[in-house]
């Protein structure tokens, strides 16, 4: 396995959409309504949404590839702050980036793909104006929470997250970004 990380291109969308549909349910609690998950995927992880992220000035999309196959992706959005959240600290909108999506194909879990993607993201933001990175993940997603904590994120609160009309409880984690 030789995984490489690069910025996403519009030509990746035909693989990103099915990868998102495959990986998003893995982060949802097992009791979550499957119809709500499918609705979220249909509305929030479709080709138009990915196209907007890839071409947007305020977003940064990475893909992880193993040969020609996409095996992971991330989406960061500048200036987005947690909504429906109870936070222990305030994040400055003008210098905060939301790690909106961070997913790896299950066949590549434990293979170091997440660490490579996170390293690339952190290196990308070293030369930016962004000072903070935050994310939300389901409170039951212990594997993800453990990974984020190992790479420097700390819990700063909780939020309610809408998944296709169903409410999920997320932990909100944040980390200070390094700068030159």
TrEMBL record:
Chain ranges of the N-acetyltransferase domain: 3-178
Gene Ontology MF terms in the entry: acyltransferase activity, transferring groups other than amino-acyl groups
Pfam families: Acetyltransf_1
Transmembrane segments: none
Protein name listed in UniProt: N-acetyltransferase domain-containing protein
Upper lineage: Bacteria, Bacillati, Actinomycetota, Actinomycetes, Micrococcales
């Amino acid at each position: 396995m030789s995984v490489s990380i690069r910025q996403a291109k519009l030509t990746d969308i035909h693989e990103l959409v099915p990868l998102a549909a495959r990986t998003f349910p893995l982060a949802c609690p097992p009791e979550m309504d499957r119809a709500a998950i499918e609705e979220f995927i249909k509305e929030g992880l479709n080709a138009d949404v990915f196209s907007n992220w890839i071409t947007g000035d305020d977003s940064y999309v990475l893909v992880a590839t193993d040969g020609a196959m996409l095996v992971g992706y991330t989406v960061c959005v500048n200036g987005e702050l947690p909504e429906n959240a109870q936070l222990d600290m305030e994040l400055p909108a003008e210098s905060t980036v939301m790690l909106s999506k961070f997913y790896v194909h299950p066949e590549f879990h434990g293979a170091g793909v997440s660490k490579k993607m996170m390293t690339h993201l952190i290196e990308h933001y070293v030369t930016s104006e962004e000072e903070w990175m935050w994310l939300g993940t389901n409170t039951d997603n212990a594997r993800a929470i453990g990974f984020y904590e190992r790479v420097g994120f700390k819990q700063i609160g909780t939020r309610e997250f809408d998944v296709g009309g169903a409410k999920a409880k997320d932990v909100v984690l944040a980390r200070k970004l390094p700068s030159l």
